[in-house]
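Write out a record, fold above all:
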Amino acid sequence: MATLTANKNYLQPTGFRILINRQNYPNAEYFAQTVSHPGANVPAVEVPSLRVRSVPIAGDKINYSDLQIDFLLDEDLVVYREMHTWLERIVNDGQVNSSQSVGNVPIPTFADITLMVLTSHNNDNVKFRYKDCVPTDIGSIQMSATSSDVNYITFTTSFRFSTFEIV
């Protein structure tokens, strides 16, 4: 039987941190602005029935949508370059050259991403660990000479992953 929580503090939208392999993506953690934890669904299997609409039965696998992270774009495009290089490395996997390795050790194409949810006192509370992440989409960068306010530019990167766990 489930018990009522003793913690009555609401989750704050700014109460998170991101951690992606610091050796290969050191700027991603600092420039992450928003994170969209993926939704999940279990598609129903439709069983045909006479004279009645088909009857849905619970499916046998969970489908997760993509993990999406919006990154703040710096003037040197450091985070954008990190994400774009990661995409290139996925496409060119197996073709190790000096830009894709540290010494003679190739940089892996998969990385775990950890979303740390913070308490109201900014302490780590709950962690979502997404396993074997790969970027699948880097969003466009929109620049506009007609903007009257200073709105800093962000871009979205979508990641696929094998599974996630709540720690």
